[in-house]
Design goal:
Strand order of the largest sheet: 8-28-27-26-9-23-25-24
Shape: elongated
CATH topology of the largest domain: Calcium-transporting ATPase, transmembrane domain
Distance between the termini: 79 Å
Pfam families: Cation_ATPase, Cation_ATPase_C, Cation_ATPase_N, E1-E2_ATPase
Subcellular location: Cell membrane
Helix content: 40-55%
Strand content: 15-25%
GO biological process, one term: potassium ion import across plasma membrane
Radius of gyration: 36 Å
GO molecular function, one term: ATP binding
Largest sheet: 8 strands, mixed
Number of domains: 4
Number of helices: 32
Number of strands: 28
CATH architecture of the largest domain: Up-down Bundle
CATH superfamily of the largest domain: Calcium-transporting ATPase, transmembrane domain
Membrane topology: Multi-pass membrane protein
Bound molecules: adenosine-5'-triphosphate
Structural class: alpha+beta
Length: 942
């Protein structure tokens, strides 16, 4: 759609210059759009959204349902059962009152129902996951009505002036207005993995291909380095990415390891069921030496085949994982990839950044250290009010040239903004830089004023590898040396960063209003002071400057040499209060927390010791030393080291790899562009929701909405709860299947005649409804108190390990023994009382009812492995009780409502008969409770 008011939207933007682009889009470089223009354009072009694509289509989800081997087995059973009915019909033998093809129709109906349920569950899960992703939708920094704002990328309109920097994923297409070392990776669009250098001041011929339009930027591409200003030319589906209509953030619904294991299990069970059918039919025929019993044998084997397969299980697992993600998001952990829910339960090592994750990321400058003064500063938070104390006396810092120069450097060498909205002071950008702006404002230095006196003409951006940044400003106002404290030259360069690295590049030092050579003694003193401050847990930055006659060319290596040292600034970033506790929880849960930081070793140590991550004397590995190690050598250290300091993002990747080679399951946090490879490599890559770059979020499995370490621990706990609950209902469902199979197998052996106790339809009813509902309720069982008091689940652990397999078999046998005893008694009782008539079949309904109701007792008792049911608070999981009551009522309806009775092939039971069934069923509950008592006694005795 081309707008009427903006006929220019079809322009070949790469052929026109920035000024013309702004004209065509009726926008302004200094003001941006007005709110009125924004409202009109939102009306006209809609929000900046891509129609979702990339996930599975509805059809694909539906077809996937029928790829399930269990459903295929059921279809097979339906067909064989239909063929038998057809045979009866042709031979005119069926039982009077029987509806022909009833089982076939019912089984097919259940197949369709199951497919439909699976379809709705999966599409809901995909939608929920997509909706969750929206929560972490990128924010963009733009200029509107002359002010800088941060908005949701969906609110962008053509004409918006947008600021981009390293780590940003572009939210719209645009024409570059200004660039500074801007490098963009366009692989999402062009497939080219290398980043391209972008430049605003190029004029390109019309025929230039997409990948060569170096003055344009495209939605979905990533800023790898540098900064730029862009005027948005198209949004939503009109962008280049929109045109090819692939959603970059495609929903990922990979099967989780457990789902894969369950798929393998169902294949094994189906194969087992088919073998069972073969054995029963062929064995039966050989034993009888005739084809006469084929019908009966087929019926037994079909029932057994249906009974073996846990039809309800896949659906319950999907729902449980979905519930897990909901629970996690309530605790501020947003799951982007479903397998993460499960992997979280196995995490053994959490590697966390320091700044913002373990600390509050609310920096407050404490003091300065120039050649001759160390003023301290009062005041809290971002409010620019406070006093400067020099030698214990309140002083005006701008009276001291050294201090004044340092404060000016804080203001000018800065990419952030200090803003006041409704009386609240906030920082737009990096909190470290925010703290510097606050302290400069406390001294009365206005950022805007100084930025226009000394406008920035070039910069060398900050990266975590370089650990410093520089800006070059022009002395536009022709200021006197006395006004700034700096030498008066056409240009000035300011550098700030890690003190050691900045000091290395200095040859001189500012001393009062003079410049002197920097002596070795001074260097040593500065480094000692730096260490003292860092050992108190403070974050320290070094500042320097140099006068320039010309602007150095972009990418020049030597630009940051021969600097003049200005001083140190230290700031406090208090540890988060809740982290100490979370670290202690990690320890009891067998998880090792590790700090990986770009900050100074001593700062890292002080904070890690305060939080309980390390002890005094523990080994600390520095990025520089780590670099010299090969992977096997690093592997020998990773087990001991809990602090990595002064590391660069690429070191993180090697740390993860070394830990993984040691068999650890690693969760790793990250926020920058260059953290992406480590996040991808980690078993759980965790991005920061607030401070994280779009690129890091894209690479992650999980996003912390509050950037908080404690949230990782909370998510780990939820992961363990999900895993425990899945194991719980697997025990419950498969135990029941074993009971059914054994009962059916015993019937021809123990009863002289009378056929199979359970029809395929009744078994399906049990597996899907009477087992399914309580299993769903068991899936929301809350955490047991000891869930974080045991070691992590072994990732390679078989789901049946730790007693699950033996439990299933034991309980299956108990269930079968109870039912078989009842079956033999009921069979004798009905054949004696009702002869061979139709009523003689009521023993079958008694078996059916006992199996169902016994499972209700099982559901109630299995809520806890160790606690008796009377010791559990029923209010902690009322769903189990609800499911048990509903399922019991449904079962009774099958017996006492005539149409249901005839459909399900059940018989009316007298109250006495029903009471016998309930009595036998109750024994199941009693048995499990006795087991718990026995285990308790046994453990106490030992
Ligand atoms: P973490 O890795 O735990 O988040 P960090 O924030 O210190 O710690 P980086 O952001 O990589 O890690 O910073 C590394 C170092 O670079 C810091 O210790 C500091 O010395 C320096 N530094 C940080 N921010 C800036 C900045 N905006 N400008 C200049 N130097 C900076």
């Amino acid at each position: 759609m081309v707008s009427n008011s903006l006929p220019s939207l079809n322009s070949a933007w790469h052929t026109i210059d920035p000024v013309r682009s702004l004209d065509l889009l009726q926008s302004d470089r200094k003001i941006g759009l007005t709110q009125q223009q924004v409202d009109e354009r939102l009306q006209e072009f809609g929000t900046n959204e891509l129609e979702e694509a990339g996930g599975r289509s509805s059809w694909e989800i539906l077809i996937d349902q029928f790829k399930n081997v269990m459903l295929l087995l059921l279809i097979g059973v339906a067909l064989v059962s239909g063929a038998l009915d057809l045979l009866d019909l042709v031979q005119g033998v069926g039982k009077p009152g029987d509806i022909p093809f009833k089982d076939t129709i019912a089984i097919l109906a259940i197949v369709v129902l199951n497919g439909a349920l699976g379809y709705f569950q999966e599409s809901r899960a995909e939608k929920a996951l997509a909706a969750l992703k929206q929560l972490s939708s990128p924010r963009v920094r733009i200029l509107r009505d002359g002010k800088v704002h941060e908005i949701d990328s969906e609110q962008l309109v053509p004409g918006d002036v947008m600021m981009v920097e390293a780590g940003v994923q572009l939210a719209a297409d645009g024409r570059l207005l200004e660039t500074s070392n801007l490098q963009i990776r366009e692989s999402a669009l062009t497939g080219e993995a290398h980043a391209v250098n972008k430049q605003a001041d190029l004029h390109l011929p019309e025929e230039t291909s997409l990948g060569d339009r170096l003055n344009l930027v495209y939605q979905g591409t990533e800023v790898v380095q540098g900064r730029g200003t862009v005027v948005v030319t198209s949004t939503g589906m009109r962008t280049e990415l929109g045109k090819i209509a692939t959603m970059l953030q495609a929903v990922e619904t990979e099967p989780t390891p457990l789902q894969q294991r369950m798929d393998q299990l169902s294949q094994a069970l189906v194969t087992g069921a088919l073998i069972l059918v073969g054995v029963v039919v062929i064995g039966g025929l050989i034993a009888a030496r005739s084809f006469a019993p084929i019908r009966e044998l087929l019926q037994v084997s079909l029932s057994m085949a249906v009974a073996v397969v846990p039809e309800g299980l896949p659906a319950v697992i999907t729902v449980t994982l979905a519930i897990g993600t909901q629970r996690m998001v309530r605790r501020n952990a947003l799951i982007r990839k479903l397998p993460a829910v499960e992997t979280l339960g196995s995490v053994t090592t959490i590697c966390s950044d320091k700044t913002g994750t373990l600390t509050q990321n609310k920096m407050v400058v404490q003091s300065f250290h120039t050649a001759s003064f160390s003023p301290s500063v009062t005041g809290e938070g971002y409010v620019p009010e406070g006093k400067f104390l020099i030698q214990g006396q309140v002083a005006n810092p701008t009276d001291y040239p050294e201090v004044r120069s340092l404060l000016l450097a804080c203001t000018l060498c800065n990419d952030s903004l200090l803003q006041s909205e409704n009386g609240q002071w906030t920082i737009l950008g990096d909190p470290t830089e925010g703290a510097l702006l606050v302290v400069a404002a406390k001294a009365g230095l206005e950022q805007d004023q100084w930025n226009s006196k000394l406008p920035r003409v070039s910069e060398i951006p900050f990266t975590s590898e370089r650990k410093r940044m520089s800006v070059i400003v022009e002395d536009a106002a022709k200021l006197l040396e006395s006004e700034t404290g700096f030498l008066s030259t056409p240009y000035l360069m300011f550098t700030k960063g890690s003190p050691e690295l900045v000091l290395e590049r200095c040859q001189k030092i500012q001393y009062g209003d003079r410049i002197q050579g920097l002596t070795d003694e001074q260097r040593t003193q500065i480094l000692e002071r730096n260490n003292q401050l860092a050992a108190r847990g403070l974050r320290v930055l070094g500042f320097a400057y140099k006068p320039l006659d010309n602007v150095p060319p972009e990418g020049s290596d030597s630009a940051e040499n021969d600097l003049i040292w200005l001083g140190l600034v230290d700031m406090l970033d208090a540890p988060r209060l809740e982290v100490r506790d979370a670290v202690a929880r990690c320890r009891t849960a067998g998880i090792r927390p590790v700090m990986i930081t770009g900050d100074h070793q001593l700062t890292a140590q002080a904070i890690a010791e305060h939080l309980g991550i390390s002890k005094p004397g523990d080994e600390v590995l520095i990025g520089r030393d780590l670099e010299k190690m090969d992977l096997p050598e690093l592997e020998r250290h990773v087990d001991r080291v809990s602090i990595y300091a002064r590391v660069a993002p690429e070191h993180k990747l090697r740390i993860v790899q070394a830990l993984q080679r040691q068999g650890k399951i690693v969760a790793m946090t990250g926020d920058g562009v260059n953290d992406a490879p480590a996040l991808k490599q980690a078993d759980i890559g965790i991005a920061m929701g607030i401070t994280g770059t779009d690129v890091s979020k894209e690479a992650s499995d999980m996003v912390l909405l509050d950037d908080n370490f404690a949230t990782i621990v909370a998510a780990t706990e939820e992961g363990r709860v999900v895993y425990t609950n899945i194991r719980r209902f697997i025990k419950y469902i498969l135990g029941s299947n074993i009971g059914e199979v054994l009962t059916i197998a015993a019937s021809p052996l123990l009863l002289s005649t009378g056929g199979v106790p359970l029809s395929p339809l009744q078994i399906l009813w049990m597996n899907l409804v009477t087992d399914g509902l309580p299993a769903l309720a068991l899936a929301v069982e809350p955490a047991e108190p000891n869930v974080m008091n045991r070691p992590p689940n072994r990732p390679d652990e078989n789901i049946f390990s730790r007693g699950l397999g033996s439990y299933m078999i034991r309980i299956g046998i108990i269930l079968a023994v109870l039912t078989i005893v009842l079956m033999v008694g009921a069979y004798d009782y009905t054949t004696q009382n009702f002869g061979n008539g139709l009523d003689a079949d009521r023993w079958k309904t008694m078996v059916f009812t006992t199996l169902c109701i016994a499972q209700m007792g099982h559901a109630i008792a299995i809520r806890s492995n160790s606690k008796l049911t009377i010791e559990l608070d029923p209010r902690t999981n009322p769903y189990v009780w609800g499911a048990v009551i509903i399922t019991t009522i449904l079962q009774l309806l099958l017996i006492y409502v005539a149409p249901l009775r005839s459909f399900f092939g059940t018989h009316y039971l007298t109250l006495n008969e029903l009471a016998v069934c309930f009595g036998f069923s109750a024994l199941m509950f009693v048995w499990i409770e006795m087991e718990k008592l026995f285990v308790r006694w046994f453990v106490n005795r030992r």
